[in-house]
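for the writeup, i need someone to sanity check this before i put it in the appendix. the sequnce is what the collaborator sent (i think, or maybe the updated version? ugh). structure was predicted straight from it, no edits. if anything looks off just tell me and ill rerun, i have time this weekend
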Amino acid sequence: MEFFADWHTHSRYSDGRGTIEENTAAAVGKGLEQLAITDHCPANIGVGVKDADTFFQIQNEIEAVNEKFDSIKVMLGAEADIIGADGSIDIPRRVVDRLDILIVGLHPYIWPCSFNDAWSVVGVNQMAQVSRSYRKKARVNNTKALKEAVLKYDVDFISHPNLRMPVDVAELAAVCVTRDTALEINTGHHYDKEALVRAAEKSGVNFVVNSDAHFPETVGNLASGGALLERFNIPVSRILNAREARH
């Protein structure tokens, strides 16, 4: 297979180290045809964008960059945080409606919707680091919140499921299939991706392989994710940003 897109990268608007133009130039150098700039949203403590309206500023810069590069399409995205047990995310509908790519994921340090959500979304996951019983509870809470988000929003894919915050992947995948939401194989983090694919493959869920690049140099580094999916004989038709290699 060959990859034509990297739909999860970060710029200086959140915790990335490169500009949108630098990320784009790197993607062109890797032969990609599509790139999404998907910065962290405001509730992600210490790394998110200043506020939701920042995405309109990012959109303006993307439009300018697209005028400079003929061989690639740069798209506006966001990596939204789960901030409530009901699947609420940290950007409003007026921003979601402007996005080309909506990613939803779990992150450990976020500003929750309420005191109750502070416990169910943040506190239980912190306790799960030291307690097996809390880990089971966190798995239930996390899975439910992600499922609710998939049902509530038009989510393109779930970012790095099972990275540090446990999820019932098979249960999540079953809901994702009904909503055409993919699961991400994230090459930018080290976690048990084999277990992820093993748990999800029989559901028929689609996958996407992304770099989660925070530096221009790692944009488009997708080969390890492709190799993993090939080992599990996942057909290219189920990998949304890949196609059969051209000869």
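The chain has one domain: 2-243. The longest strand covers residues 73-81.
thx in advance!!
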